[in-house]
Amino acid sequence: MWIQKLLLACLPTSYNEGMNKSLLLTISLLLLLLSAGKATAAENEEVPSFLVAGMRVLPKRGDKAHNFSLLEKYAHQAARQGVKLVVTCEGFLEGYTGNRKIAGEITRQEYLKTCEPVDGPWMKKIAQLADELNIYLSVGFAESREQNVYNSVVVYSPTGEIVLHYSKWHTKGEPFNTPGSRLPVVTTEVGTLGTLICYDRQFPEVPRILALKGADILLIPAYGRDGDRNEALLRTRAWENSVWVVYVKQNQALIINPSGKIIARDHGDKDQLVLARIELDENVGTGDILERRSAGLYREIIELQRQPRK
Description:
By secondary structure, this protein is α/β, with parallel strands linked by helices. The chain has helices at 2-10, 13-18, 21-44, 64-80, 100-103, 108-113, 121-133, 205-212, 229-241, 288-291, 300-303; strands at residues 49-56, 83-87, 136-145, 148-156, 162-167, 185-188, 191-195, 217-221, 244-248, 253-256, 262-265, 272-279.
């Protein structure tokens, strides 16, 4: 046996001749057990993981009370199933009233009536819900802030504290919304989270910045309808940044792993929760593109603007 030969080779010659074979066998067995123990420990080392739920639920336009009741219903259902993070669609609280193409004509004053500050009465109720259920809760809403209005998302911690607050950068079709100016990430017990909203996903720079800041999971609340290319785009965003993507609309939910594979999706036309287990293993943040970037070559992208065709 190779361990015995190795031991004999390491011992002085005088010991080679007189060494008791049973002692050699005992030492060999001990070494084998030690080696097996290390292998078993490595195999049993738990990969951090948790359940996430995309709340594929249609809110009622302009009815916060109704929409909060939906949030309560599905958040309670998710918590009973052991979910640690629940994600709603874009503009869930007020029903996404700020996009004329989707919601129809609306004046600024009418829109303002559907908005509220981050510490507004309904947002406080959502914070209390996260605390009650001991979950992370990501909710989209129309935010009034000082003299402006924003299309925002807030992530509450299991104690009801705001841990992430993001406002949509690319606000095409939303005439009253002010573009956001920050791309924050936050490290939590369920991983490092970053978020973007709907149209932001079509600009590769946005998720790339979040990934470079350390995001493991991108939350992407959205609203509206998209064709087949949307799934290809989202799978690419996950793969090219080696991050998890949780994409939630009022009529669709997709959960995509860092390899670009859709591991969970909605089915049918009814309101529903879409659940998946997110694993923060060695596949997160280690994609070829991230590892082999040549950032010095990309400086021109800031200055260049494509000229229109003549």
